[in-house]
Every structure is written in structure tokens, then in C-alpha cells.
Amino acid sequence: MITIKDLRKTYDGFEALKGVSFSIREGEFYGLLGPNGAGKTTTISIMSSILKPDSGEVLLNGKNIYTHSDESKRIMGVVPQEIALYNELTAYENLTFWGGLYAVTPSELKARIDEVLKLFGLYERRNDKVTAYSGGMKRRINIAAALLHRPRILFMDEPTVGIDPQSRNLIFEVIEKLHNEGMTIVYTTHYMEEAERFCDRIGIIDNGQIIAEGTLDELKKNSHARETVVVNFNNLNDALLQKIHSFGSDFKQVDNMIYYYTNNLQTELSKIISQCNDAGGEIHNIEIRKVNLETVFLDLTGKQLRD
Ligand code: ATP
After folding, report:
1. Closest Cα to atom 2 of ligand 1
2. What's the CA-to-centroid distance between 14 and ligand 1, angstroms?
3. What CATH number corresponds to the domain at position 101?
4. Is residue 307 assigned to a domain?
5. Per residue in 8-58, pLDDT tens?
6. 3-state helix, strand and coil shares in percent for the chain, rounded to the nearest 5
7. Residues 300, 213, 32: CA angle, nearest 5 degrees
8. Nearest alpha carbon to residue 98 among 146, 154, 140
9. Cβ < 6 Å from ligand 1: which residues?
10. Structural domain boundaries enclosing 238
11. Residue 302 domain-assigned (yes or no)
12. What's the domain count of the chain?
């Protein structure tokens, strides 16, 4: 449905995108995951025709979004990272303004505004000025505005940053509902929990490049990240360490702990525990760390996602 080909963008000599390519299928929930400054906003802004690339193109159903701009805009809804609302207007008035921009017909607009206000739990507050709204409520109105013209694709740039848990949960519920109804969603985030929970496929972006892409399972399978058994000993000393070494496991020592790396936790766990016992180790605590997006990301980039 959307094909992104070799996007490049430079800001004042700084190469923010270094040839980004990927594609998104109809009905897919696609997550662009990366740390701050990776190039997520630049990519999603170009995809939603807010920003022009230096080179490369974005095709929507095979048609370039710039040369078919009107048609593309009808299909796309955009939720930018910066909240774009008039504080001195009520929620209802703000939505009327946005509905006009999105060319929703006046006869349809009122009913549609009521519908999106109810969807986001703000119908009762519709006549309050936006200045009285919390950050989370403003964010909800911003998403509601992007939905007024019933887009088939929704672009969302970090929609849950800095908002209260109640608003965040409501946004999650709404986007899950929209996705279940068949909407294609493109979502940027640096929260791995969100990417793991919602995304059918994830593109990991770092330093202006897609460094890995796939379903969560594919990303885990293709990474070198491994499950880790962290054994904390009461009596870790050189003698014990040497014995553990002699068993030939892949491990690393950190303070009183041994980090065992394994590709098959199920079969390896009991072996690790009996080796620790055989070596005379007194186990204080055992922790199992599964492979998740955070460890995949760490493996790919050598840094934490939250850097
Ligand atoms: P964040 O999560 O912080 O929004 P991001 O992954 O969305 O990060 P971008 O906003 O796309 O990243 O920025 C990519 C890089 O380009 C960053 O290093 C950023 O500082 C730089 N950049 C973005 N916009 C501009 C601009 N208008 N002028 C100069 N540099 C910019």
C-alpha cells in the first residue's frame, strides 16, 4: 500500500536520513522504533507529505504522494508530534476548524465531530476551551482531528509521549479498535512496550537508517540477542569461577553474578543450575531475562533504546 524508496534528508549539512526504504501493507500496524534523534519524525513527516525529502519517493498504491497530493491527503490522517490546537477555542470549535481543512462537508461535519468526541471520551467537555485541557486531553483531540475525514491510513508520531496514563490507555483502546476495523496505522515510538504490543511489523531505525525490520518474532529470531540466566551467588570467588569456566558454558561475570547466555532456555536451565551446584556455588537468586525488543535493539546498536 505504501512504498518508501531510498529517502534522504539533510538538515544544515546533517544527514538525518541516509536512504530509508521499506513498505507497508494495507491494514498493517507498522511501528517505526528508534531512540531520540534516530529519524522517526523526519521519516513519518515525509511519508505523510508534511516534509519534502532531498531525494527518494513515497508511493501510495503505486502513485507518488506529491504528484497525487489531493488523492493522498483524502486517504491519510496525520497526528504530528507537536499538538496543533487553538487554546482559546473550544474542542468543538477546534474540530470544526480541522474538519474544514480536511474538506469534510458541513452537513456531515457536526455528526462526525460528535462521533470522534465520544470515541475519545471528550463529548461532555466539548464546549470547554482547550486551554483548560490536560496534555493528554489535547493529544486526544489532536488524534480526533486527524480522524474527521475517515482516513484509511493514520500516521501517528509518538502519540503517547508525556501524557497521563488514563489518556494513554484511552488512545491505546481507540487505535486498537481502528486497527481491528482495518485501518492501516504507521506509528513511531521509542517505547518498546508499545511496539511489542501493537505492531504487526516493526522497522528499527537508528542514525537515519533502518537497521532491522520484521515481526517481533522475526526480529528476535534474526538477532544475536540470547536469553540470559543471571545467577547471583553468595560465594562467588576465583575457585568457583574456575570451576564454572571448566564446564564450557558461554557466560560473563558481573560482580557476584554470572550471566549465562543460551539459545534454548528450556533445556539449558536445569543444566546451568546443576552445574552451579556441582561447582559448589551457593545460589542466592536466579533471574531469567527473555529476548525482547530492548535486547534485540541492544544487540543491533550496542546501546539501550532509552539512551
Ligand atoms: P525524536 O524522538 O527526538 O523526535 P526522531 O527519531 O523523531 O527523534 P528526527 O526528529 O527525525 O528524529 O531527527 C533526526 C535528526 O535530525 C536529529 O539529529 C535531529 O536533531 C535532526 N533534525 C531534525 N529536524 C531538524 C531541523 N529542522 N533542523 C536541524 N536538524 C534537525
Report:
1. 36
2. 10
3. 3.40.50.300
4. no
5. 999 999 999 999 999 999 999 999 998 889 999 999 999 999 999 999 999
6. 40, 30, 30
7. 95
8. 146
9. 11-12, 14, 16, 34, 36-42, 190
10. 226-290
11. no
12. 2
